[in-house]
Structure formats: structure tokens, C-alpha cells
Automatic annotation (TrEMBL):
Signal peptide: 1-25
Keyword Transport: no
Residue stretches spanning the membrane: none
Keyword Disulfide bond: no
Protein name, per record: poly(ethylene terephthalate) hydrolase
Entries under Pfam families matching the protein: PETase (PF12740)
Catalysed reactions, semicolon-separated: a butanoate ester + H2O = an aliphatic alcohol + butanoate + H(+); (ethylene terephthalate)(n) + H2O = (ethylene terephthalate)(n-1) + 4-[(2-hydroxyethoxy)carbonyl]benzoate + H(+)
The protein's Enzyme Commission number: 3.1.1.101
Superkingdom assignment: Bacteria
Protein source organism: Streptosporangium album
Domain PET hydrolase/cutinase-like, first and last residues per copy: 53-247
């Protein structure tokens, strides 16, 4: 009897604690009117370092707010420049993207080094990032081997949410602490959709969503990210910026990706994701 009473209560607590903190909703990031696939309101800049390449809003030093962070892992034998268009797209929406300069990212060590770098820059009065980095809002993403790395670093308590894109199998989702949006490609012959679905099935302790991009192969996200730009941007805008316009893309009975059969060949939401409230407008 007590177990039957406790299980719904535990599920409710998990759902509530994995919704973004409400304080960030007042941070004043400009609305893009749900046009997630279009360039955002910020001009962008790139800082290439030895370990990390930063993609960020160009005028961040004059920004009146702190900006959330996305750490990025590359696919096997790839470098950040391969994904430049996607990473700049996120930067144009107000994110600071710390991309690991490694073609072997699976352990996630270089990705986490990006957080340490930004913490140092944030504390340095001589840096353009001084006091402009929101180190309490960090997401992780990556492609292929880097997608697996995004899952690996999702075990770090500093990482609030993960978005693995066509992730390789060398990762344990059981250690991830925040919500996950796992993306597959309908025609991916390298990381088969069934592998990503298995990962999603294992993520029964966190709100998890599986999205299979219609017509996409393993390299659709490379160069022009095409159908990957809009949903990934919406996910991070909700999870890290508290953008309520993005909530309805994923949650509630009106979940927009759930009914968009032109973009998605399969969308699944686990029980904890189904308990996250939808939009009220």
C-alpha cells in the first residue's frame, strides 16, 4: 500500500525538479516568435583555443544578462569547424558554446574542460566573458561519438540537460541526472535508430524524449544542420533559458513535435516526460 502511494509522489517530484528553474524566465532573452530555425537576435564571434573553441554572442561584454552554456563533443575524427553552422546558430540565440577541440571525445574530458575554461573567463575582470557566463545553466550536446560523450558528461552535476545527436553506444545513460532529448536519423546506417531507441528506453529515471528526424542520414547535421537546427535550439531555449514559447514544442498534450510528421518519422516521450506540464497559452 505504501509503495503504491509513494511511487506517484516520487514521479511528481522528479518531474517538477527537472523543469528549468523559473528565475531564468525573467532574464530577458529576446523572443524569436517560435522561429527556432532562423538565426537568433545576436551577432556572433568565435574564439579558437588550444583545447576549446568558443562560439558566443559577439557583444557579450555589453550584455545586461548572463548567458547559458552548451558544451559540445565532435564525431569521430571531426573537429568543431565541421559543425560550425549549428554551433554559431546556437550562439546567435544567446548561448555560449564551448566545443572540445578533439576528434576522440567519448570520455568527455575535453568537453568538461570547456566549463572550467568559462569559469575562469567569467572570473577574470579582463575577459569579455567577465560576469556574463551563467554557470548554473549548462547543457551538453554532441554528434555520434560526441553524442555518446554528451551522455557521459550528463553525469556531472554541473550539466542540467543533454541533447545527444545520433549518439554512439559507449555511454551509460543511467548516470545522467537531467532531462534528455535524444535524436536519431531515419536513414542513419552508422548509428541505427534502434540503438538510439534503446538508449531512450534505458532512460526511465529522467524525463526523456526520442526524436527521429525524417529523411536524415548520419551526416545531415554536418555543415548546414537543416532539420536539426530548430528542435535543438528550442530544447535548449526551454531547458536553459526558461523560454516558455519553447515548452510546447515538447511537453503537454499539445506537444508540437509529436504531431509534426513532416519533420519527424518517430517521436516518443517516456512517462516522466509526459508528466512535465505543457504550455498554458
Amino acid at each position: 500500500m505504501y509503495r503504491r502511494l509513494l511511487l506517484p509522489l516520487i514521479a511528481l517530484v522528479l518531474a517538477l525538479t527537472t523543469v528549468p528553474h523559473t528565475a531564468i524566465a525573467d532574464a530577458g532573452f529576446p523572443s524569436v516568435g517560435r522561429n527556432w530555425g532562423a538565426p537568433g537576435p545576436y551577432a556572433t564571434a568565435v574564439d579558437v583555443g588550444a583545447v576549446t573553441t568558443l562560439y558566443y554572442p559577439r557583444d557579450i561584454a555589453q550584455s545586461p544578462r548572463r548567458h547559458p552554456v552548451i558544451i559540445w563533443g565532435n564525431g569521430t575524427f571531426a573537429f568543431p569547424v565541421v559543425y560550425r553552422d549549428l554551433l554559431l546558430h546556437w550562439a546567435s540565440h544567446g548561448f555560449i558554446v564551448a566545443a572540445a577541440n578533439t576528434p576522440q571525445s567519448n570520455l568527455g574530458i575535453s568537453m568538461l574542460a570547456g566549463i572550467d575554461l568559462l569559469a575562469s573567463r567569467n572570473a577574470n575582470p579582463g575577459s569579455v566573458f567577465h560576469d556574463r557566463v551563467d554557470l548554473s545553466r549548462i547543457g551538453a550536446s554532441g554528434h555520434s561519438q560526441g553524442g555518446a560523450a554528451a551522455i557521459v558528461v550528463g553525469a556531472d552535476p554541473r550539466v542540467d540537460t543533454i541533447l545527444p545527436i545520433q549518439p554512439g553506444p559507449l555511454a551509460n545513460v543511467n548516470a545522467v541526472g537531467g532531462p534528455m532529448f535524444a535524436l536519431a536519423g531515419q536513414y542513419d546506417s552508422i548509428v541505427w535508430p534502434t540503438l538510439v531507441k534503446a538508449l531512450y528506453d534505458d532512460a526511465d529515471h529522467i524525463p526523456a524524449i526520442y526524436g527521429e528526424v525524417r529523411g536524415a542520414d548520419h551526416f545531415t547535421v554536418v555543415g548546414d544542420p537543416g532539420p536539426f537546427a530548430a528542435p535543438t535550439t528550442a530544447w535548449f531555449r526551454f531547458q536553459l533559458m526558461g523560454d516558455e514559447e519553447a515548452r510546447g514544442e515538447f511537453f503537454g498534450s499539445g506537444c508540437r513535435i509529436c504531431s509534426d510528421t513532416r519533420t519527424w518519422s518517430d517521436v516518443r516521450r517516456n512517462p516522466l516526460a509526459l508528466q512535465v506540464p505543457g504550455t498554458t497559452s
